[in-house]
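FAQ

Q: What does a record look like?
A: Structure on top, sequence underneath. For example:
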């Protein structure tokens, strides 16, 4: 059960004076590994760099209901 979706993010203008690390990539992927005991997520840039990651509790739709389980992601 693995779904992936690429979502374009707004990019800043080339004349921006912000450091490169503060500029969001043109494209990124949100990867979600939802399991019974834990859920890991990562935001990955177009170049493969990990922009952010987090770990949370388990994903248990049969216990809490599908809407609540998806809402907790």
């Amino acid at each position: 059960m693995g779904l992936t979706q690429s979502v374009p993010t707004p990019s800043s203008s080339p004349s921006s004076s912000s450091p490169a690390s503060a500029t969001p990539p043109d494209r990124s992927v949100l990867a979600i590994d939802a399991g019974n005991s834990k859920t890991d997520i990562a935001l990955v840039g177009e170049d493969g760099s990990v922009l952010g990651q987090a770990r949370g509790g388990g994903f248990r739709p049969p216990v809490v209901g599908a809407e609540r389980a998806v809402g907790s992601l």
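Q: Is there anything notable about this one?
A: Residues 1-19 have pLDDT under 50 and may be disordered.
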